[in-house]
Amino acid sequence: MSDTQLYFAIGIPCFTIIVSLIISIINVAGIRQEMREIRADVRAMRSNFADDIRSIRATLDLMTGKLADLDTRVSLIEDRILGGGR
């Protein structure tokens, strides 16, 4: 076996391994970037969801207040009707 053959026998597998490692590092960097984007999207959706929940709670509080006012009015009417009829 000549020196050139030895260099090829050792060099080609080493070169292939180095190239595959570089490609893997590039792929991992791409995956990390995609994960960052997904994480940012999830945070934005979570923030929007929290805003929606706050809006629903505010509407529910308003409706509950109106219902309490209506109950008070109905009670007053009942007292007038039933109190006056006795």
* Strand residue percentage: under 5%
The helix/strand order is H
* SS class: mainly alpha
Mean pLDDT: 92
Question: What form results from the Cα inertia axes?
Answer: rod-shaped
Number of β-strand runs: 0
Radius of gyration: 37 Å
N- and C-termini, Cα separation: 123 Å
Low-confidence stretches: none
Helical fraction? over 70%
- Count the DSSP helices: 1
The largest sheet, given as strand count, sense and whether it forms a barrel, is: none
Structure, described:
This protein has one helix at 3-85. With 86 residues, the protein is mainly α. The protein is rod-shaped. The N and C termini lie far apart (123 Å). The relative contact order is 0.04.
Summarize the structure.
The protein has 86 residues and is mainly alpha-helical. The chain has one helix at 3-85.
Offer a few descriptive terms.
mainly alpha, 86 residues, 97% helix, 1 helix
